[in-house]
Amino acid sequence: MHNDDRLVVVKRCDGYETAEVDRAVEELFAALHAEELVGPGKRVAIKPNLLMRRRPDEATTTHPAVVAAVVKALRRRGVTDLLIAESPSGQYTKARLKSIYDGCGMTAMAEELKVALNLDLGVTQTSAPDARMCREFPILDPILQADVVVDVAKLKTHMMTTLSGCVKNLFGCVPGLLKPELHCRFPDQEDFAGMLIDLCDLVRPSLSICDGIVAMEGNGPSGGSPRPLSALIASRSPYAADVAACALIGLPPKQVAMLREAMGRGLCPSSLEELTIEGDPIESLMQPDFQKAANQGTDFLMRVPKVFRGPVKALLTPKPHIRVKDCIGCGRCAESCPQHTIRIVDKKAVIAYSDCIKCYCCHEMCPVKAIDIRRFRLFDL
Ligand code: SF4
Ligand code: SF4
């Protein structure tokens, strides 16, 4: 890890009053020397947590006052090309985005500051070359097109991933209903954590800020309760920011599967002691009695009645599909298939789906791109 990635700045901030939040966020940016990362000519995407349509005081979503302060801090550093982009849960449509921006207080904030809220539904399937668990992700175009991503998370406990902070916030770079698809592909908690780290490594936010002024405790990400924590956290590393967030809420970082995975890859410090903490004394902000979530694991299907799990899984998991007219019968897909479930018949590949484990190796190996990954139409967004 680079030394800059061990630096975390923590500022006390007792409420969402504009002047106080602006001052605290400016101090975070200054301490992290943000001017080295952003400036004139850089296209910047701010990625808040807008999980669903909730009022800011419900502590489910990043507070608009924090996002506004980030916009102002970026503009003070000469950034003019900037927008706010997020894919909430549920379908990724313009109507739903507008409704969530309105309900979360983002529309009013954006109108006041004249900053753009993303309504472009473009998504690009993107390779993750250094991935260990998931080698391709569908990513929102405004995130991909940005020179710099600023991750502005909400600090919450989470029933599936234990913590929702700066690393988990990036799951919203995957559009709408393609998120449950990833839950289905990686039902095991450790595998899901590996996928999240692959995604975080792909998106690589330059700055990560966590809104813990009023955090969510208990059964987050949406069913917990607001809890004043009076803290803003920032780092160049989303992992380091999350380790500091853990310290504030009395959660050992090794209990968080995604941080464990990041530690194993040498991306994340294993404890607070390995961080350089600046700003206000972190000990004065710690609340060890912060309520943790009842961990239910990351297997999305466990929430579906048993009798429906098979069909739901089949619907949510995309399949490889051979475009027969384009197949040249080279057999590379059959050679790469770990299940030996592809045969070449009359110079065309044929898949026996009953044995297919949806690893998509065939899709990656085809030299003429004759294998698509197809999903059920409802999940196109
Ligand atoms: S997705 Fe994997 S298991 Fe299925 S046919 Fe392709 S290579 Fe074989
Ligand atoms: S790798 Fe592509 S072109 Fe070759 S047999 Fe398989 S589908 Fe056809």
UniProtKB/TrEMBL annotation:
Q: Which InterPro entries match?
A: 4Fe4S_Fe-S-bd, 4Fe4S_Fe_S_CS, DUF362, PSI_iron-sulfur_center
The answer on whether this UniProt entry bears the keyword Isomerase reads no
UniProt entry tagged with the keyword Transcription: no
Q: Which Pfam families match?
A: DUF362 (PF04015), Fer4_10 (PF13237)
- State the superkingdom: Bacteria
Against PROSITE patterns, the record matches this protein to: 4FE4S_FER_1 (PS00198), 4FE4S_FER_2 (PS51379)
Q: Which UniProt keywords apply?
A: 4Fe-4S, Iron, Iron-sulfur, Metal-binding
- Where does the record place the 4Fe-4S ferredoxin-type domain? 318-347, 348-376
Tell me, in a sentence or two, what this protein's role is: Ferredoxins are iron-sulfur proteins that transfer electrons in a wide variety of metabolic reactions.
UniProt protein name: Ferredoxin
Q: Which lineage is the organism of this entry classified under, starting from the top rank?
A: Bacteria, Bacillati, Bacillota, Clostridia, Eubacteriales
